[in-house]
Amino acid sequence: MRQAPATTARGTASAPSSGLADVWAHPFLRCLLRGRSARRRLDQRHPWMLDTAVVLVVALLSLPDLLSRRRHGPFGDTTNPSHLPTLAVVAFAVALVVPLWWRRRAPAVTFFVISAVLLAQWSLGVWQQTGMAALIALYSLALHGSLRALGWAAALTAAEMTLAVGLLAPVEHPFLSLFFLTGTATAAIAIGLTLRIRRLYLAALEDRATRLEIEQDQRVRLTAAAERTRIAREMHDIVGHNLSVMVSVADGAATLATNRGETSAEPLRILADTGRQAMSELRRVLGVLREERGPEEDERLLGPQPGLRDLDALLTRVRAAGLPVTYRTTGDLDALGSGVQLTVYRIVQEALTNTLKHAGPGSTADVTLTKDTDTVHIKVADTGAAAGTRSGDAGHGLVGIRQRAALYGGAVTLGPQATGQGWLVDVVLDVPPGDHQP
Prior knowledge:
Blueprint: E1 7-10, H1 20-24, H2 27-45, H3 47-61, H4 63-67, E2 71-72, E3 78-79, H5 86-97, H6 107-123, H7 132-144, H8 147-168, H9 174-260, H10 265-289, H11 295-301, H12 311-320, E4 325-330, H13 338-358, E5 365-371, E6 375-382, H14 396-407, E7 411-416, E8 423-430
Parallel strand pairs: 4-5
Antiparallel strand pairs: 1-7, 2-3, 5-6, 6-8, 7-8
Enzyme class: transferase
Keywords: ATP-binding, Kinase, Membrane, Nucleotide-binding, Phosphoprotein, Transferase, Transmembrane, Transmembrane helix, Two-component regulatory system
Organism: Streptomyces griseorubiginosus
């Protein structure tokens, strides 16, 4: 929030930036997340499209083996499957291609079925392009299946290839053939594991960003709730004091009316009793709000709530901390009610505390309070570090300023000054006629 540009809001604070923005700010991660999200949406809507495409591609690559009766093998030998009927060759091709339809739903079963068919085909001395189905199944097992099953599958693949090259379907260059077959199988496993790790990494990023967003939202909500509770405690003291005065005046007037024999004595007693009942309800509510207060807070509650006359003491403490402060006032601020004075005091206090935390050495602050007919203008400006160097977090101070301003329909502007150097807190409170001292 410290790094956000100056905004003018009515009432509560604007929503904080989400935790996902930190991840999306990186171009490479943003590209990966977008591509993954698009593929996931397409796969969820049409899960059969990708599996069908893989089956069709492997089937098309197997057509040369089915249309030609004599062709060169993959390792320089000549394969002549003429001793087998065409139906058997087609059956082998179908048995290798069709299981790929279930390669993502049952990767282990798919691989072992294809391995069995491939072993039977090699035992008859037949090499087909559809043998690549075993590599696809191995890749799918590495990407979607169990890692334990992948270990058994890798061992079975190495044994099958060695057996096929050496005994079942001898080739012209056995060592070169075995090296090629082992290399392609290793590459299929490596690609599958790489994509699996990347998928887990992206899922972890999304989960982390979601948790950051939830935690930040909860932090802001808890901060706002704590500040509202604090405001309610402080306002209780002010309202309670005013009610006590009203009850005392009503009791005195009732006694005087009774001595004089006037008929207004009973309504005045009812007024006093109603005031005492309201004070009792206030104490009950305050007891709920103060259930978890600490001993330091108990000590603070013993003193009266601060007002504008206490700003001099506050500024003295801030100056003693090393921050030169200039203080200017315009208008009859002493005529403001105690609730408005408390709000002004807390806003100035939070703004100066924020300046002490972030402005840096050699900074100065300027506090200006202006009282008009129905508004109070609070302006706290400092000459501290540039806004971009200040840490941004929705702490208690800024949330407290917005919550207190919302009590009086205030307009709040928080952000860097127009010069780009320093920070500005600008609050305008609407003060109704009833919030003035008599």
